[in-house]
Write a structure and sequence with these properties.
homodimer; alpha/beta; Rossmann fold; Tyrosyl-Transfer RNA Synthetase; 7-stranded mixed β-sheet; two-stranded antiparallel ribbon; 11% strand; globular; disordered N terminus
Chain lengths: 411, 411
């Protein structure tokens, strides 16, 4: 235990060192780029950030503790890294619950599939562990980074809340809040306590800010850090000041939580644990995150079946061979094939996926067939989402966002 | 909002704000220092900051517009500089009201006379112009700069609020708030809007922060700027988004409001106007530092008559001559005489002050006599304050700090 803690301490510190020019990949909350448009090397990222690989032992342990089949995103390595997940599970095994914290920067009206990944996974965690969840909508961040007005950021936050609610969260266990609505009181006090512990040089090291950045950016990291501490939510955790926090997120958010973990012991809190995903690839391939500015790089939850079909057929990068003959002979390169990768995210049936892996890899299946399967899977999924979202009323949004105790937190 | 003495307490610790070799004086919210322990040169300060001198024409105009004798602090040049006071008076003359904004950084339990100066003057302005007033208690700032806990900062804010209320403010026109209580909602939105407009390089230029400073310090200037804009207070100024703001403060706060004025037009607000005071000198003289660690450098509102008498007799720096004979011959040097300077602040009667100026200056009065007069004036003033403060109940503090409309704002 002690060794483990010391190792964590060290790795947090190492990871906080500044990203250097000579780095062959840059991953932070604003930039996900590999050199020369190559793929992100997740092993290197784990090394560099100092987090741990989420291995089969841990997945088996989650299976055992929850009595549920681990989520597809666990079985297929979408969530592939963690920090202190062992500690959370140790405590859980002894009967100590925790809470989940995740969030979204509401920068666009329509979400794409990549945006849904953390929420689909968080819903699974909530159901499996039966724990409360706080979801932060960082409308203040987006207002500052994207140069959109306060009012537009708030509108987007509310629109995004509907998509999040449509993922099936339990209103008796879930508190959704926007920073513009919620910052103040105990939350603001924690922002101040956190800010006191972090120098400007430190945030430059972690986030790479420059003197030309406005001070809103420099002020923001404590806003994203504060929900990691239960006393930021007195209406939820008034008598649970030692409650542990588990944060499911994409690994580009790791810098925020390295900073948070550094500060936590000085403020008398547990370090938040993390469970971190890789990035959902764009239709064009795996060199980075999807871009909201190119609608053809992603499939949106607002896309119709026809659009989904067209996007997949036209844009999804194929690892298949140039001719049918060559394909039958060599098979598809699954390492770069986007239709197959997307199926790894969203095709639930392990046997069916394995069959496609085999047949497509050997050339027995053609790209067209795999694309057709993907079109079917995604169309169903997107239609299901759209149906669920249409049922989300303003009253439901108000209910999720009401500052209230959660009646059903740990049952 | 730090004023002079509170700022002095902090100055030693802030390596980043050291007096630069080429500067002969440094005045900012945390440091007030002249080279070689000399006096602050206020003319140079006006030049450097780019504010205007508050001249007799303006004082006469205030007299005419309010129908009241201008406050001693105006007649005697304690408030000596301004920004855009003309604009406020032009608008006022046309029937357009404004609101007052001042504040205090609650760093100590007992206030000294220097702390009362801005509040005594603000009360006069409120009465004379019949305008609403917001008073910000920057408990967040003090928590961050002085390394005291959130809870202790909040306690000090409430204690200080009692002393402020004891200055006689009208509860129907005055809203007192602590940042820890009030930051959030529209106020937080303005903090974000302001922060977006100010780069890190800019705050370094204005405040002299360094990379070793924590990000709480860098985040704070928008907190002090926000009350300058009426939409930070929807419960007060919901329908008065164009209301002008006048800020009475010590001139060490000018940097905050230079920044605020810079930002104001970009956010669609009037630049706040300022009316700025010189610093209240310590008992040891104008080059001496008032410091919390030396209770004999200042007279506190908690000092008894005996303590006041002793402090004045023992510590008040005298401009009188070494021997009675020499004093009768040369008279006192009023430029450095603290008892006389204190009388200039607190002896209301212009004729009596003029008489003392003449007689003491010519050697007809002795230091002992002037000190006796000052003891009498301050004892009365402090006892009056203590009496008023004892009558301030917790219910009254709650009433002033309640988030509410002000029923009597402009009558």
């Amino acid at each position: 235990m002690a060794n483990n803690a010391a190792a964590n301490e060290l790795s947090d510190k190492l990871a906080s060192q500044k990203l250097k020019e000579e780095d062959d990949q840059v991953v932070n909350p604003w930039t996900v780029t590999a050199k020369d448009g190559g793929k992100i090397d997740y092993d290197k990222l784990i090394d560099k950030f100092g987090c741990q690989r989420l291995d089969q032992t841990l997945i088996d342990r989650i299976h055992r503790l929850t009595g549920r089949t681990p989520h597809v995103f666990l079985r297929r390595g979408v969530f592939f890294a963690h920090r202190d997940l062992n500690d959370i599970l140790d405590a859980y095994e002894k009967g100590e619950k925790f809470y989940l914290y995740t969030g979204r920067g509401p920068s666009s009206e329509a979400l794409h599939l990549g945006h849904l990944v953390p929420f689909m996974f968080t819903k699974y965690l909530q159901d499996a562990f039966k724990v409360p969840l706080v979801i932060q909508l960082t409308d203040d961040e987006k207002c500052m980074w994207k140069n959109i007005s306060v009012e537009e950021s708030q509108r987007l936050a509310r629109e995004n809340a509907k998509d999040i609610i449509a993922c099936g969260f339990d209103v008796t266990r879930t508190f959704i809040f926007s920073d513009f609505d919620y910052v103040g009181g105990e939350f603001y006090k924690n922002m101040v306590r956190i800010a006191k512990c972090v120098t400007y040089n430190k945030v430059v090291g972690i986030f790479g800010f420059s003197g030309e950045d406005h001070i809103g950016k420099i002020s923001f990291p404590p806003v994203q850090a504060a929900p990691s501490f239960p006393n930021s939510f007195p209406h939820l955790f008034k008598d649970k000041k030692n409650l542990r926090c588990l944060i499911p997120c994409a690994i580009d958010q790791d810098p925020y939580f390295r900073m948070t973990r550094d500060v936590a012991p000085r403020l008398g809190h547990h370090k938040p644990a993390l469970i971190e995903s890789s990035f959902f690839p764009s239709l064009q391939g795996e060199s980075g995150k999807m871009s909201a500015s190119d609608p053809n790089s992603a499939i949106y939850v607002t896309d119709t079946g026809n659009i989904i079909k067209k996007k997949i057929n036209k844009y999804a990068f194929s690892g298949g061979q140039d001719s049918i003959e060559k394909h039958r002979e060599l098979g598809a390169n699954l390492e770069v094939d986007i239709p197959f990768k997307y199926l790894c995210f969203f095709l639930d049936d392990d046997d069916e996926l394995e069959e496609i892996r085999q047949k497509y890899g050997k050339g027995e299946m053609l790209t067209g067939e795999v694309k057709m399967k993907l079109t079917q899977v995604l169309t169903e999924m997107v239609e299901r989402h759209r149906f669920a979202r249409a049922a989300v009323t303003d009253e439901m949004v108000d209910a999720f966002m009401a500052v209230r105790p959660l009646p059903n937190m740990f049952d």
